[in-house]
């Protein structure tokens, strides 16, 4: 099995520790099978979301060409995976190649639970953890139950962390509310975006969270900026970092 690791551009530039944690996690469960293709670039989501379709097209073509040789493509980002799986139509000329790549592109937690079907790993993480449900992961990829669905509760991210000794999930009042990031929305509607982010952080703080985690570092980037500026006592970690720290398989 060849696993192609896709690291989103904002993680590469601002949070390389998350990329390293993701690599260590995949190497732990897929030893000798993980590769990082150096020809990879941005998936094109920022351009597509801004309406610049012609600028997004070369990025989408490059993604498909780069990752088509792999058996699986894994990324620590629900939003980037959602872009590839649900929003590449019309951007890639070779529709057969696109369909092939879309079918084997997975978010990290989704890959571990649905493809590798691992049991939740043992470890220790004695903290009160607030789980942020990113919109793309929750509603596009169905990584958990959203409030509008009348189905039995499930959460793939929480399940992965469930065997870490000492972990305690806190319960915010609005479990799946948007953080307000939304990519370029945070630039064009800065005041609204920041207000939404502060509401999200306050909800988690009222619930008693010590650590805020998610499967999307883009959401956490937005929330972490507000947390640091306002000196709030919350530690922000991607779920890959929580697993690596809890399992003791190397610092991120």
Automatic annotation (TrEMBL):
InterPro entries: Cys_rich_dom (IPR004017). GO terms for cellular component: cytosol. Residues 3-84, 129-224 form the Cysteine-rich domain. Pfam families: CCG. One of its GO terms (molecular function) is oxidoreductase activity. This is Putative L-lactate dehydrogenase.
């Amino acid at each position: 099995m060849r696993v192609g690791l896709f690291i989103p551009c904002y993680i590469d530039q601002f949070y390389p520790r998350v990329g390293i944690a993701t690599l260590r996690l995949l190497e732990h469960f897929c030893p000798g099978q993980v590769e990082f293709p150096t020809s990879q670039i941005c998936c094109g989501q920022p351009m597509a979301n801004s309406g610049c379709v012609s600028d997004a097209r070369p990025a989408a073509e490059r993604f498909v060409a780069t990752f088509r040789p792999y058996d699986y493509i894994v990324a620590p980002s629900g939003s980037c995976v959602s872009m590839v799986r649900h929003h590449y139509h019309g951007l890639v000329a070779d529709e057969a190649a696109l369909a092939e790549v879309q079918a084997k592109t997975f978010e990290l937690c989704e890959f571990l639970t649905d493809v590798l079907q691992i049991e939740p790993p043992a470890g220790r993480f004695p903290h009160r953890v607030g789980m942020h449900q990113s919109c793309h992961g929750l509603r596009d990829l169905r990584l958990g139950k959203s409030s509008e669905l009348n189905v039995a509760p499930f959460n793939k991210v929480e399940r992965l962390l469930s065997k870490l000794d000492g972990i305690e999930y806190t319960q915010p009042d609005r479990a799946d509310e948007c953080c307000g990031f939304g990519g370029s929305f945070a630039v064009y509607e800065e005041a609204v975006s920041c207000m939404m982010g502060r509401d999200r952080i306050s909800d988690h703080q009222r619930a008693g969270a010590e650590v805020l985690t998610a499967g999307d570092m883009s959401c956490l980037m937005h929330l972490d900026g507000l947390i640091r500026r306002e000196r709030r006592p919350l530690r922000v970690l991607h779920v890959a970092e929580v697993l690596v720290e809890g399992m003791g398989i190397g610092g991120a």
